[in-house]
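User: quick one
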Amino acid sequence: MNRKNVLYRIYDLYVDGFRSMTLGRTLWAIILIKLFIIFVILKLFFFPNFIKEHAEQGEESEFVATQILNQQ
Amino acid sequence: MTTDLFLNIDTSSIDWARAQFALTAIYHWLFVPLTLGLAVIMGICETCWYRTLNRSKGAVVNKPVDTFWRDCAKFWQKLFGINFAMGVATGIILEFEFGTNWSNYSWFVGDIFGAPLAVEGILAFFMESTFVAVMFFGWKKVSPGFHLAATWLTGLGATISAWWILVANAWMQYPVGCAFNPDTMRNEMVSFFDVALSPFAIDKFCHTVISAWIIGAIFVVAVSSWYLLKKRETKLAVESIKIAAVVGLIASLGAAMTGHKSAQSVAEVQPMKLAAMEALYNGGTDIGLTAVAWVNPLEQANYQFDDAAPLKIEMPYALSFMATNDIHGYVPGINDILNGYTKPDGTREPSVDEKIARGKQAITALAEYRKAKKDGADLTYLNALLSTINENMQYFGYGYVRDKNDIVPYVPVNFWAFRIMVGLGCVFILFFAVIAILAFKIPFLSIFTRRLLAIFCIIPETAADEYNITSLPKWHYIVAIVLVPLAYIASESGWLVAEFGRQPWTIQDMLPTWVAVSDIDSFSVALTFFLFLFLFTLMLAVEISILLKQIKKGPEYTN
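Assistant: Done. Structure below.
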């Protein structure tokens, strides 16, 4: 690929940047562990979408109406 | 008694959900202000490098370019990067909580909350992440001008992110640009611009972002002070202190001015919050601002029976001025708001009992509308119900209030958090003013300041005329380092005032917390609360440890 090509320069920026990281490696490791905990463990096991779990598709507004209007 | 202080946490899911949201928001806010603040400092450092580079190009004699400013910019960028990496995605947890713990709220706000967050995600996040890469990886890959632009755009991207988040938050405090659709049970956006450019959002944004710069400046002064204490990296420390002093002084004065504007917004749309902040039980004209008073932090204020908080010392007329820009302006107190009052323009603000009655009308009409529509009732009847809903929708949430006192926020938290924020804000103005005078050695003013400090025994009389920023007694640097946690306490106190002050509303006047919360088992919310507490403590310890290690390591000099 032509080295003056913009796409190559963007590719090179990232590849070379990631390769030459020092502290960045530790930070990326922390980010990835954190994202795994947040999206895989917390989201899947502890934070389901309450309305989707309890209401049928298309009946969400009815479900919320029941929840809200019955509290008076 | 002490349970009141700790959010009155009992076994109900509402209180655990509130505590969990507060914990997550407070944790998230540890990272955001430092990101916004350091972005300005590192931008200025790199601008200095860019100017050095340009000057060297125009020089007649060819000599090696002094790379000090580049190294300085790189050092602050490294600390920015650590904080940025540790803060990434901590805000997403709040969105999970909306979907699980606050599902009624999430549905009720509809696309109004979603739109600003989507814009934030698409525009600001990608802008931020793209330019962050150029900033860290591009020193040898792009031109100095492009790199400088990328550094500033990284900060701008973070600031734009903050804008959209604060737009969403401001809407909850002052719901504008929307209409409630009884068929979908959602609020629908009728004017994107009214939501995005809400005056409340603008005031909130200015005050929040400017106060974030204070944290950045204090952090830089503290790190630099540590180097001066250890007698190393002197040039970097002195030059960084100079930049931070200017940024910090402008920001702390700016925070005072935007805080004044913010208080006026609050006075206009959330008078109960202002009354709670001031422990103002009975309002009126020519009201003074409370400097100190005894408001027991452990129990709700006795506003129904006391005229004012005990041992009150006030600054005459200042609250009227703060709230209305007029020293004789009218400011309602808690009891006025509960019982109804006449505004200066002659219009009457209904009592809470009247609002409760109108809220009940809205709820009943909504329930009847949905039932009638299902039963195939005629259009005239449905339109009549719709008209009742629309007329009373602004008080919809009051229909769920059983006792009018339920709409009074917990006064002690608001009162003390406000005083901590303002008190520390004043300390920061003084601190940055002294630092700027000492760092820049301003003629006359520096001598005057040093003499003044000597009079108050802050520096020894014998050496008052000799001191400069690099040779202050050790404890001065220690004070600067101690200001870092105080800056965070001030910033978090601001959020406590903003969020505690609007209780019990998740959406002002429209949805109280006990209706917004999901019908969820309190055990699961309590479990995730403690899970977060553990995770957040661990992640914070990791961040502080990495930051300290890098500060100890110091900058890497090219020459």
